[in-house]
Design brief:
Layout (H helix, E strand, L loop, with lengths): L2 E5 L3 H12 L3 E5 L3 H9 L12 E6 L3 H14 L2 E6 L5 H9 L7 E6 L20 E5 L6 H13 L3 E4 L2 H24 L6 H4 L4 H7 L6 H9 L2 H25 L4 H22 L14 E8 L4 H11 L6 E6 L5 E8 L4 H10 L3 E3 L1
Parallel strand pairs: 1-2, 1-3, 3-4, 4-5, 6-7
Antiparallel strand pairs: 5-6, 8-10, 8-11, 9-10
The structure holds 1,4-dihydronicotinamide adenine dinucleotide and 3-(4-hydroxy-phenyl)pyruvic acid (ENO).
């Protein structure tokens, strides 16, 4: 692929454009808000000038409700050899395109399984998709050349291609993305009117559970509107778990010893089923979850501290597998948790101590 056109230069479009530009592809950037395209260009994602002729691949990265219309316009204008979208739902947009009577041989629906609660080009990074699944939904009508262009994009983004049927994809993301999003919002909503004294105690657990609740509601109304059935089915399963859990907790309040034991069994059941489900969540780069050891470092909340820790770890020859940062409420300090292979933990601890870092046991 030599040239590409990214339409919709928000988080996903700009991240893909940055990855393509880094691999030497000439990227043209287009957005109905020209300021967004200008910002993406300023970040090094390409040029906001229109291409002279058809590009190799058009990447449509606009909110799901606009995907079919934007694709139809691009295809009718003949702006590219191949077309793809990255929307979080796949069945609806395809059916909309079919109903517009377009020839879909040059189109493939795709979905990178990576993103964030942030939106817009300023949140974009070239490595956003690295090691993450990128779903491709070709049909028997999809041109091989177009499938190859999509695979090239996925490879430039260093993502892992996964081929699926569009409706099977939508059922799968209902489980791993859409339902969890609503549950996260519902947990976060409990905090809206909670007392300040309670909210200030928030720790890492509630931060983990509510991170995605900070996402743009307009985008998520679009996503959920395109996949309501599978999400509703899953939420009703959760509702029945909730009913049973409430019953078990009420039983734990009882004065009757037998009832309390039943309550305890009920709670244990949901916790154990949670352990079993969590154990199936793939780790970094889609591999099995890994038991890393944590080295916790206290830092001043100042710019450059993280970069220094990473540089010091690098000098000690340690690969940091994952990182977490916890900020202490109302204080100018934070706790950085570095996840490393167990045998690397004592080496890293010693190396960081030697360089003056305060390690928390
Ligand atoms: N946010 C995430 O984590 C993920 C999002 N997606 C999908 O990627 C797509 C884009 O999402 P984000 O980049 O997060 O959103 P975003 O809000 O960061 O960017 C969307 C961009 O599209 C532009 N836009 C809207 N309507 C347009 C139109 N008619 N023509 C041209 N530009 C238009 C907006 O001005 C904005 O710059 C969505 O379809 C979403 O479902 C896929 C994977 C992850
Ligand atoms: O922020 C996260 O962890 C996400 O899961 C983001 C995300 C949002 C929408 C998608 O279609 C895919 C991924």
């Amino acid at each position: 692929m030599r040239t590409a056109l990214v339409i919709g230069t928000g988080l996903i479009g700009t991240s893909a454009a940055l990855a393509l530009a880094r691999r030497g592809v000439v990227v043209h950037l287009d957005d109905h808000d020209p300021e967004q395209a200008r910002t993406a260009a300023a970040l090094g994602a390409g040029t906001d000038k229109a291409p002279d002729g058809p590009v190799d691949l058009a990447v449509v990265a606009v909110p799901p409700a606009h995907v079919a219309r934007v694709l139809a316009e691009a295809m009718r204008g003949g702006v590219a050899r191949g077309y793809l979208d990255v929307a979080s739902v796949k069945g609806g947009p395809r059916r909309e395109l079919e109903s517009l009577g377009l020839d879909l041989t040059a189109y493939i629906g795709t979905h990178p399984m990576s993103g964030s609660e942030k939106s817009g080009p300023l949140a974009a990074t070239a490595d956003l998709f690295e090691g993450r699944p990128w779903v491709l939904t070709p049909t028997q009508d999809t041109d091989t050349e177009v499938l190859n262009l999509a695979l090239e994009l996925v490879s430039h983004c260093r993502a892992v291609p996964v081929v699926m049927d569009a409706d099977a994809h939508d059922r799968a993301v209902a489980l791993v993305s859409h339902m969890p999003h609503l549950v996260s919002s519902m947990v976060a909503a409990r905090l809206e009117n909670a007392e300040e004294a309670a909210v200030r105690l928030c720790g890492q657990g509630i931060r983990d559970v509510t991170r995605i609740a900070a996402s743009d509601p307009r985008m998520w109304i679009d996503i959920l509107s395109a996949n309501p059935g599978p999400v509703a089915d899953l939420l009703s399963e959760i509702a029945s778990d909730l009913d049973e859990t409430v019953r078990a907790l009420r039983a734990l309040q009882s004065a009757d010893e037998v009832k309390r034991r039943e309550g305890s069994t009920g709670i244990e059941d949901v916790l154990r089923r949670g352990n079993a489900g969590r154990a199936r969540v793939p780790g970094k780069h889609g591999t099995a979850p890994h038991a890393y050891e944590v080295v916790a470092v206290l830092i001043d909340d100042q710019p450059g501290q993280l970069a220094r820790i990473f540089a010091d770890a690098g000098m000690a020859g340690i690969n940091i597998e994952d990182v977490r940062i916890e900020h202490a409420t109302g204080q100018q300090i934070g706790l950085v948790q570095l996840m490393v292979e167990p045998k690397a933990a004592p080496v890293l601890t010693a190396a960081l101590r030697e360089r003056g870092w305060s390690i928390r046991q």
